[in-house]
Design a protein that fits this description.
Blueprint: E1 3-6, H1 16-20, E2 26-28, E3 40-42, H2 53-57, E4 63-66
Antiparallel strand pairs: 1-4, 2-3
The structure holds iron/sulfur cluster (2 copies).
Length: about 80
């Protein structure tokens, strides 16, 4: 399963990643980060496709997307 990691304290709350995510799984947390913004976060990580659109759109390089190694072919 892909994993999305946010360097939360760098987020400026611009919501570009929220808009771009095709799975609509990114939203703004209710807590504040060190810069005083509500940071972006992912809840349903199992729905992430690892498309990396969020990481590419973020102007502050807050987001890193990790994809797992390709699964072994079964049978
Ligand atoms: S990698 Fe793609 S699917 Fe996953 S959170 Fe980012 S934009 Fe959404
Ligand atoms: S695009 Fe980057 S700076 Fe903007 S809300 Fe998303 S993580 Fe934060």
């Amino acid at each position: 399963m892909p994993k999305v990691v946010f360097s939360e304290d760098r987020c400026k709350g611009c919501e570009l990643c929220v808009a771009v995510c095709p799975r609509k799984i990114i939203f703004m947390a209710s807590r504040m980060n060190a810069r005083g913004f509500r940071p972006a976060t992912v809840t349903e990580m199992d729905k992430c496709t690892g498309c990396t659109l969020c990481a590419r759109v973020c102007p502050d390089t807050v987001i890193e997307v990790y994809r797992e190694a390709p699964a072994k072919k079964e049978g």
